[in-house]
TrEMBL record:
The keyword tRNA processing belongs to this UniProt entry's keyword annotation: no
Domain CBS residues, every copy: 9-65, 73-128
PANTHER family reported in the protein's UniProt record: CBS DOMAIN-CONTAINING PROTEIN, CBS DOMAIN-CONTAINING PROTEIN CBSX3, MITOCHONDRIAL
Low complexity bias: start-end ranges: 127-142
Keywords tagged on the record: CBS domain
Stored Pfam families: CBS (PF00571)
Matches recorded under InterPro entries: CBS_dom, CBS_dom_sf, Diverse_CBS-Domain
Protein name: CBS domain-containing protein
Membrane-traversing stretches: none
Amino acid sequence: MRVAVAEFISANPVTIRAAQSARAAAKLMRDRKTEFLIVLDGEDVLGVITAQDLAVRVMAENGAGHMRIDAICTRDPLVASPTDPLVDVLDRMRERDVGAVPIVEDGRLVGVFSIDDLGTVRDRPDAAPATPAPSADAAPQPVVVSAMLPGNVRTLPTAKNLPVAKSAPSPPRTDASA
């Protein structure tokens, strides 16, 4: 059975208008706690902008927060249809090295899919059962860390195998804006 990406999309994507400023995008990202905005020109998806885009493209222009979003966004982004198979969308995301894609149906934005949305897999009734907890006597097993994209898995040693370093107290923080 192939699962459609529609089962994992967020139906309320955070959007910004193409004519708005980079400063408005940064404030919207901060306020909505996101690092990904879909850029709209009218009702059409013009592009996307990430927090990294703002940092790299705006700071390269001496922090010009007045720059228009349509001048710095990634145009013609990877998009998906709600009926696209999840594995196909993940493959395309990996190929283009993106973490989120707008979901468009009949030319209209209907949602967004991000790697973070895959966390909902464990909440599905048809998801595989959780692995039972090991007994206290069991040897520690390596921890597998994955960015949820095929071919992007790293195995790390368990905490019991890592050396413990004692750290010095952190220096007091200063507020650079003061």
